[in-house]
Every structure is written in C-alpha cells, then in structure tokens.
Amino acid sequence: MTxxxxxxxxxxxxxxxxxxWDAIPTGVFKASTVFFPxxxxxxxxxxxxxxxxxxxLKGTPTTFTLEARLATLEGAEHLMLVPSGLAAIMxxxxxxxxxxxxxxxxxxxxxxxxSLAQHELRHWGITHQVYDPMDVASLSAALTPATRLVWLxxxxxxxxxxxxxxALIRCVRREAPQALIAIDHTWGAGxxxxxxxxxxxxxxxxxxxxxxxxxxxxxxxxxxLLGSVGCRDRRLxxxxxxxxxxxxxxxxxxxxxxxxxxxxxxxxxYAAQDQAARRIASWAQGRAEVARxxxxxxxxxxxxxxxxxxxxxxxxxxxxEMQPGxxxxxxxAFVDALKLFRIxxxxxxxxxxxxxxxxxxxxxxxxxxxxxxxRLCIGLEDVDDLIADLDQALARLSD
Length: 399
Ligand SMILES: *Cc1c(COP(=O)(O)O)cnc(C)c1O
Known about the structure:
- There is one protein chain.
- The protein is of the alpha/beta class.
- It has two domains: about 40-265, Aspartate Aminotransferase, domain 2 (3-Layer(aba) Sandwich), CATH 3.40.640.10; about 265-399, Aspartate Aminotransferase, domain 1, CATH 3.90.1150.
- Helices cover about 35% and strands about 15% of the residues.
- The protein has helices spanning about 5-10, 40-45, 60-75, 85-95, 110-125, 135-140, 165-175, 235-245, 255-260, 265-285, 305-310, 330-335, 385-395; strands spanning about 80, 100-105, 125-130, 145-155, 180-185, 210-215, 225-230, 290-295, 315-320, 340-345, 355, 375.
- α5 (about 110-125) links the parallel β2 (about 100-105) and β3.
- The radius of gyration is 23 Å and the shape is globular.
- The mean pLDDT is about 95.
- Pyridoxal-5'-phosphate binds next to α4.
- GO terms for molecular function: cysteine-S-conjugate beta-lyase activity; pyridoxal phosphate binding.
- Keywords: Lyase, Pyridoxal phosphate.
C-alpha cells in the first residue's frame, strides 16, 4: 500500500503507546466497537465470564475493574453494573420473574420498587404481595408455591425498621425452596453487614442477589447515577447477564470512573456520616418537638436488637417523628426553614438533605406513627453547624 492520505493516517496510525502504564486511577476506556485481531478471535471471545472484550455494552477494562472491586466489597462472586439503583432492582425482577409468578416485597420497600410491581410487573401477569418485615409470620403467610422472588431491605425505607434478616431468610429457605431472595443493599453499602455471609457460626445463610444504588455511598458525590447487581451463583449470574445483555443496560464510563475514584474513601465517609448521624439523632431525641427518632442504632428504634446482632455501623440517615400536635403545614415550614439541610432526594453525598413524608399514605399495612416523619440524611458538614441549623428551624414550630 502507498502512504495513506492524511484523513486516513489520522485514524489508522502505527504508533502504539507502551503497555507499562501504571498509576492510581483506572483508565477510562471508552468504546462501542472493540476490535478483534481476526475472525477466529471474534467467534471465540466470551464476554459473559469477563475473560475478553467484545463490545462496549458488554464491558470494558474500566467497568470490569469496578465490578471486581464492588464484588469484593459486597462479598459477591459476580457483579454487574447497571444505569441506576432502580435499574438494579428492575434487572433482578425481569431476570427472575415470569407470568404467573409472585414476588413479595416488605411494606417499607423503596417506593419505586413497589411501584414497578404495581404497574409493569402486574401488567405482565406477575402478582405481588406485601409482608410486614418485622413479623416473620407475616412473610410465612404470604409465601405460596407461586412465590419466585422475595425482596428484603435493611433498614427499611424512611421508617428505618431493621428486620431479622436471618429469620426471614430461614423462613423462605424452609417454606418456599423454589423462591430466590434479593436484598436492596444500599443502606448497608457492603459495610454494615455482609448479605452473602449472614449465618451465625458456620451456618450458610445468604441472599441470592444484592441490588445496590451506587448513586449513594459508593459515589458519594451526588453527581452519579449508577447501580449494581451482585450474586454468588454462576448459573444465576449467567441468567442475569443474558437478561442484562438483551435489555441493553449500558453505563457511562465517566460515571464508572467517578465511582472508582470515590471507592477508596467509602469506608471513611460511611464511618464519618454514621458518627455524625448518631450524634444528631441523640440530640434530636432530647427535643420536645420530636416524638421519636427512628435510627436502628438507638435502643428504642424498631428492630434495634436485630441491627445490633448483625452490625456495628449504620448509614448516616434517619427519620424523626414530629409530635402529633403539629400540622403538616407546620412541619413543612420547619423543613423550609432549614438552611444547611437542602430539600432533595437521594443521600450519602457531601450535602445534608431533608424530606418530609406523610407515611400513612405510603404503606398498605397500618403504621404506628401519628406525627409527620422528616427524613434527615447527614452529609459531611460540621456536626455542630448542622445541629444549630436544626435548632433554629425547630424554633419556628413554637412561633
Ligand atoms: C436511591 C435508592 C435506590 C435507587 O437508586 P437510583 O440510583 O436513584 O435509581 C434504590 N434503593 C434505595 C434504598 C435507595 O436509597
């Protein structure tokens, strides 16, 4: 071949960077197309066990690296990235459930997970039942031969109950051996407890799947939407991986790099936000405006004994039940008066967040709460400044 023209030379260039590059960050490898040296390699390469690259959607060095590190964090054998925490929940539902199956959700499940069951899953002929996560008999009563998937969540969404995970898993294994168990592992973040190693002593007690909103702790920056699904079993992994491939659940590699950057500080941030949240929760307990503080590390919080049996750490998130005498408008005014706590969804970033909830409208089973709930997610600000902010906003309630 004669020397190529410039347009061609700028694309098909002979220079190859040396292979020995080694540095702290993982390379940000971007590609849809991945080249094969020859047709035989194209036919032979396997993406499903991550032994090779075939196409950007099926993995890059950047995504495989984060997947391997997160598998270590969670104690999973296999792990797959998806575009959000909710997509992780969806992938498990879609990979496992078919028409005629039933899925069980705790009454305090992450709201959009419940909504998926109420809409798309129902339209596809998949039924769902709700159980009380604090009552193993309620789970037992909801299990049927059609139950194919049971969701767990610890701590529960907004009301922060910590269930007896061991008892719930034992109940499913004993009474519905055909069912698989998935946990929304966002709160625990791979640190508070190990969902694939829950047995006391040498008992093998584990969930089948973890769904994790990397959007929260692993990112820690409030700038990424990403999720993951972990599992132990090779066959279940392949089932998930094929469903993942057919759904085309690609992730942006810049987001993956952002989580790789945040991961080394994950244990430090988790511990710092835990300590800060516990100080603020204890302070809130002493306030006359507050009826109850819902934080699993507090002795009178629902499921505290179950938390204590499994964990020493907790996520930096809790809810306060306001005295029932306050109207929703007064509680909203308290939330509006906060200056450092910003009103917004998500959590585990640098900024403390607040959301008021009318919990009676969110649950199907009766709840014991009479006052409005306010959820506080503790960021990385100075704790005394956060307490002063809550103090000045609570003062509005007596205006
Ligand atoms: C935020 C969250 C999710 C969903 O994560 P996204 O990335 O926002 O979709 C799922 N479960 C829990 C417990 C969460 O807090």
